[in-house]
Design a protein that fits this description.
The chain is of the alpha+beta class. It has 2 helices and 4 strands. The protein has a 4-stranded antiparallel sheet with strand order 2-1-4-3.
């Protein structure tokens, strides 16, 4: 009698694991893929000042593979503004 109860319990456990296992596997895959992704960092470069013949504004893009928060931080650290000899270089970077 005890042996039948143990076998019955094991059979029920096996059925419930068959239902739960795909959910667990799917959850692990989704969590792993959401940790790091590839983002595009786009930097707009603009020159201003009085001298003629300054370069045209341009846009530079590069990819960052990281967590979203870290990718935004790494991208925005490329933003800068500097002035030399009356020419101002402004570079603004954002994640897209």
């Amino acid at each position: 009698m005890v042996k039948k109860l143990v076998l019955l319990h094991l059979a029920e456990y096996s059925i419930s694991m068959k239902k739960i296992l795909p959910v667990i596997i799917l959850s692990v895959i989704l969590l792993a893929s959401s940790c790091t992704q590839e983002y595009v960092c786009q930097c707009a470069i603009k020159y201003t000042g009085n001298p003629p013949g300054l370069p045209d504004s341009s846009i530079v893009e590069f990819k960052i593979k990281d967590k979203k928060k870290d990718a935004i931080k790494n991208c925005e650290t490329n933003s800068t503004t500097s002035t030399k000899d009356g020419i101002t270089l402004e570079e603004k970077c954002r994640i897209y």
